[in-house]
Amino acid sequence: MVNTEATIPATDAEDSTLSAITISARVPDFWTDQARLWFAQFEAVVVNQGLPDIARYNLVVAKLNKEAIQQTSDILLTPPVNDKYNTLKTRLLTVYEESETRQLQKLLSEVELGHQTSKAVATPTTHA
Asked: In what residue span(s) does the DUF7041 domain sit (predicted)?
């Protein structure tokens, strides 16, 4: 049987839309607990696409949860004229990435709490 249907070539706009959908599907939702790793993965996905600044910015915005949108609302409502992506990335990393000092303080407080719990369990009280 002969296929009589003509193949209609995709337009550049259709190719671009399909490419954007494919890229978006490969990028997970933003990780507030590991923002730097999320950006490493995001950039690995988009690096060979040659996306302009606005496209990378829009992809990141599409992957943000409500909390992250609230944290960046000023940028989202009034984006900078240039360097939108890096402006948004810098803000997200500032908000969600813990500094080394803060991580150390958190670790020490968890160790201290764990130590206090161990002591409380290890020393039973006796009533005479």
From this structure: 27-108
